[in-house]
Amino acid sequence: QVQLVESGGGLVQAGGSLRLSCAASGRTESTAIMGWFRQAPGKERDVVALCNWTGSSTRYADSVKGRFTISRDVAKNAVYLQMNNLQPEDTAVYYCAGDLTLAGCTVSTAGAYAYWGQGTEVTVSS
Fold it and tell me: So what's the pLDDT on residue 54?
């Protein structure tokens, strides 16, 4: 089992920045693929960013490329999402996700990830 706990959400004005953190515990193995997903009210849970265990391989949704950065701290068993130039359309609940069986940062379907945090809310005002 893998336990994931997010933090760092909040209210920010358009153009502002937030940094989300995800603390992982349990079976934090080197095969893990970690990612951030988000879900706006009435919408599906969509991928934001993915990375492998070391953070050497990453993948981003087109809507956040150039604004968001996913990173890892292996020593702290943590995954981060730095979000810059936030826009109202970024408003959502953000979830940290992980899986121990996926091969690389290529799977963007939420249903493929076995482990989830409780979510942290991000609200961007215009």
Answer: 85
pLDDT average per 10 residues of sequence, the chain (126 residues): 94 98 87 92 96 90 97 92 98 96 87 96 97
Following DSSP, what letter does each residue of 31-92 receive, concatenated?
A: T-EEEEEEE-TTS-EEEEEEEETTSSSEEE-TTTTTTEEEEEEGGGTEEEEEE-S--GGG-E
Nearest of 111, 112, 49, 113 to residue 82 by alpha carbon: 49
**Distance between CA atoms of residues 74 and 101, nearest Å:** 18
Nearest to 118 by CA among 44, 37, 15: 37
* Predicted local distance difference test score (pLDDT) of residue 48: 97
Alpha-carbon gap, residue 70 to 87, rounded angstroms: 18
Task: State phi, psi for 34 to the nearest 5 degrees.
Answer: -115, 155
- Compute the distance between CA of residue 106 and CA of residue 92 in angstroms, rounded to an integer: 23
Alpha-carbon distances of 33 from 67, 88, 90, rounded to whole Å: 21, 28, 23
CA quadruple 8, 12, 17, 19: dihedral, nearest 10: 0
